[in-house]
């Protein structure tokens, strides 16, 4: 969640050429992945077959959330590059939006893993379980779970923060809402609990799919093998997303030892864990899926 402190890279670095270079890299990557996400969303909404399939609905939801998060984090980076600081009261709005969307991705990944588990291990019940209505209900639950934690943090922040703190100018990052040591500790503990529970679910799905691969044959074996690779990609994506939560604490230790090294670590963590981790969704379900890839080629070639 401290990805937004990437603006600090700019504020404490006196090497203007290095700052411009990093900003150029970030803007190119962000614009490229936002373009890819929007193009894939256009492809999804253009085909009725995709809009009625639980797998593609969850995929489109991931694309939408990642696009919103990339836009918000890039806005914060641009504010930092322009040396613009906002009052804490205004930053809280951005923090809430980024907090909800950031937590949304791991929960959606979990739902996509469970959908693959049902499709491979319970193929006869897949059509009745993974309906459009139930998929939309799952998305609503994901948003509810993502919002609850952020709302609790907001309530604690409003109750504990002194009045003058809301007018204090600051760079926008989630930790501005964690005004006490115990609140920050609670935030860390709950994030680790989320990570542990989600990893257990993914490992459970992966184990069941591995067992199904031993009894599968022919086309079923290919489907099971593809599902197994998909879950491995999801596991990697989850680790990258959750690594954002550990990055600020590692960076704080490095900052005490070497501010110059801190700059490189913050830039690397922002690119790898915020931007690139969001690029895995198009790779997993966009380019690797034959039907979706054919539809992409169809629209990229202007329907030729």
Report on this structure:
This protein is mainly α. It contains eleven helices and two strands. Helix 4 (54-81) runs parallel beside helix 7, helix 4 (54-81) runs antiparallel to helix 10 (259-287) and helix 5 packs antiparallel against helix 6. The model is unreliable at 1-12 (pLDDT under 50).
Distance between the termini: 43 Å
The average pLDDT value, as a whole number, equals: 80
* Biggest sheet layout: 2 strands, antiparallel
Class from helix and strand fractions = mainly alpha
> What value does the Rg take, in angstroms?
21 Å
Shape: globular
Defining key terms:
304 residues; mainly alpha; two-stranded antiparallel ribbon; 11 helices; 1% strand; disordered N terminus
In short:
With 304 residues, this protein is mainly alpha-helical. Helix content is 83%, strand content 1%.
